[in-house]
Request: fold
Amino acid sequence: MTETEEETVELLTEWPPPDYEADLSDYHKDEEYQRPQVKRRRVTCDLPTADLSLARWLRRQLPDLRLKYGFDGVKNPKTLLNLSSETEEGRRHLESELRILQQDTRFEVDPKYYYILSTFYDRLHDLEKALEFSLKSLALHNLCPDALSAMLVGDYLEKLRTLNEEEKISIWLYSKLKKEKCMKTQTQPISYDRKVVSLEYCDVSAEQFQGFCKSKVPVLFLNVPNPCKNDWTREFLKSTIGECKFDVKKPVKCSTEWAGLETEGSKLVSDFLESFDGDNSDREYLFDWSLPLHGPALHEDFTVPEIVADNYLTRTSRESLYNQSWPSLFISRAGTNSGLHIDAFGSHFWMYLVSGEKKWTFYPSEAPSAPCSRTAWTQCSDRAPSPLCPATASV
Ligand SMILES: O=C(O)CCC(=O)C(=O)O
Reply:
């Protein structure tokens, strides 16, 4: 980050607090909380974004909100922020802050001011106003979204390199709002007749498979040649990745995190695998755990099936995000699930079921508001169904 970029960055120091629960119970004793500290250096518009304002407010209000709404034991700070913004109290806070912000006339030509207004309208679900202010912010940055979206990927990436953080977050917000509008206004889909097709792996050519990808038809491949050199028993997994630690994910009701999963500490893979013998109903998930990055010994044992080997992300530069992340591993006890989600970049996705049973439910991505699901069940044929259900995935 250059010095100029750094100067424009507002550091959100309020949320989450360092020691979250303890911190909140100490709130009334601590004068510091009355005057939240935002470290800034020479920024033009110093008003808080909706999330920053909400975080400051929530530090005081959370005990009362928990009493009233419960929030089902949710601990994740981002989920709490999202849930509280939807409460009557949260909306009132946002509306009154927004009124104050709009009376401020100091920043009429400052793109950051309009970005901030847009974040409030976004939180309040006033999509039209959010878009209006977001567009104004981009215009003041001399950025034209239509011209940006018409660019070739390479040119766009070049352009991004010339932008500072403030400009990038403005583009991000505008794109998100546009996407949301598109999803909400799309009423009748052209055709959702995309039944899952089951095909013998060996009968499908790469070209045919690309055709399915283009038309977004989910495919269940049968009799895929075994991509694992060894039998991935629990003992084998322990001997290759048992000593590795991973972040334990758990499905949490009401969570607004990725696929409704929240991180609950970390664990050794061997301890996790051994816990399957016990009689517990823990819904712990080793989820999307990168084999190249975290488990190279197991990665060596796996050959990505040829038909899905052309992974766009491996064509980015080595230091790019996700360049080396896949294939990744999923393991859980029977009955564990992740929630409905659209993958990052809206990318295509595949999984190979090594052992156990797994159920996937697909919805047409064009109409998330009117889902009609398609389900694919699969069961590993070379082994009796077991509570162990690892799979390897790549985009
Ligand atoms: O298997 C799962 O629980 C979800 C996998 C998935 O869709 C993903 O990681 O994006």
